[in-house]
Amino acid sequence: MEKPENTEDFLAKWASGALSEQEMEVFRKSEDYPMYQAILEGTEALEVPDFDKKGAFQSLKERQVEKGKVISLIPKWAYAVAASVVLFFGYLWVMDGTVKHSTQFGEQMSVQLPDNSSVILNSRTQLTYKEKQWKKGLRKLDLNGEAYFKVEKGSDFAVTTANGIVTVLGTQFTVNSHVDFFEVVCYEGKVRVATLGMEEVVTQGQAVRVLEGALERYSLEDNAPSWVQEESSFINAPLHQVVRALENQYSINIQTGKVDLEQRFTGSFTHTDLDVALRSVFESMQIKVTFRDKNTIVLGQ
């Protein structure tokens, strides 16, 4: 779909049925149309009391600014479209009491939590928590993906993932949780990691990861994750972790074929140049890189 000149007016016209047949035909073919249509249908089923829509929308935009800043490789106009419909699901979010932050390919997002702790989400990551729980001093949240936490001192702070639970009192650390991978790195203080039916205390400069049901430990000298500075670094990491990171940062599909994804990689790649990133990873491993199209890469020996 071509970029609308005024996204708020465009979506307002669509919601009120004022788009022309030609505009509707183009809009229906866009990737975003199913999501917006589902939102609109959901709001039509709600019995919502009268309120100042213009004022509420302005308030939501201001709250978005407070929540954090997104650093994205996706065109800015696409986010303006999404922001202009935030009013539809913003009401549901308030009623449910669940706060959700998520990033897409190539994005990072900075989030300020209710206790003034801060989180930076890496690409393709989702973070959720119950606002009412935090008001009661229960600092709990759920994470799917990778995030860097700077935790204010206070009551226990728990990060729950599908692979384990990380609990701290006040520290700086990262959690990286996916279906086949779990890693916790501590940059300051100490954290307690519960996984595989056991608990592990990780202190500053130490890290643990779970691979194929086994716990690995390693040390590092960094004082913060490199990906907040547009570079992803790895220490003896399995290749499948590196491939996933490349796909998430550059919105590409990497077909690995017969390449051994369990072989280990130590090094880094930039977030600002795909060609340089691919060379940094695969040349040293003597893996051939072929572009099938601009978004599909095939690896081979």
TrEMBL record:
InterPro entries: FecR, FecR_C, Ferrdict_sens_TM. Residues 101-192 form the FecR protein domain. GO terms for molecular function: sigma factor antagonist activity. The chain crosses the membrane at residues 77-94. It holds the Pfam family FecR_C. Residues 233-298 form the Protein FecR C-terminal domain. It comes from the Bacteria. Keywords: Membrane, Transmembrane, Transmembrane helix. PANTHER family: PERIPLASMIC SIGNAL SENSOR AND SIGMA FACTOR ACTIVATOR FECR-RELATED (PTHR30273), PROTEIN FECR (PTHR30273:SF2). This is FecR family protein. It comes from Flagellimonas flava.
